[in-house]
Amino acid sequence: MSNIFQSAIEVKNVLPQSKRFTMVGGCFDLIHVGHIHLLEYAASLEDLLVVAVLSDSYARKYKDSLRPIINQKQRAKMVASIRFVDFAYISDISPSNLETLHLLKPDSVVFGEEPSNTEKMEQRMKNIMIASPRTKIRFLPRYNEEEISTSYIINKIRTATIPE
């Protein structure tokens, strides 16, 4: 199993300086094929993949009060167990926060294409340009072979009828 850390500082202390790495972040609640699509792509870009698993309190700020379904410790353990992931850490702030970017200086970052939130994406891009100007920014189109998202799975479960 990959290593799980409690902060970006802990990750920085163990990252081999001779290796290039990609960073991604997310809630990773109810792991599904869309998450695997992202992690596999991100891992292919550099030598190592570092994943920021958003803490329960941080995820609630942008999801809703009922999310995440699975607690941060379990989500981090699941993400860390995926073969594409080299390091996972639990984060109380956005992985595109200026302090995190300045500390880790990833060689690449990957964002899922989310056309609905351009203001948020513009701020992320600005932070990268300021804190880690050599970082390559990649955008990955959503997995689209079928409709999939954690919200979709939750709604499907909520509306399912139990056969008699």
From TrEMBL:
Q: SUPFAM superfamilies of this UniProt entry? A: Nucleotidylyl transferase
Q: Which Pfam families match?
A: CTP_transf_like
Report the residue ranges that make up the Cytidyltransferase-like domain in this protein. 23-155
Per its record, what are the GO molecular function terms? nucleotidyltransferase activity
UniProt entry keywords in alphabetical sequence: Nucleotidyltransferase, Transferase
UniProt key word Nucleotidyltransferase: yes
PANTHER family documented for this protein: FAD SYNTHASE
Its recorded name reads: Cytidyltransferase-like domain-containing protein
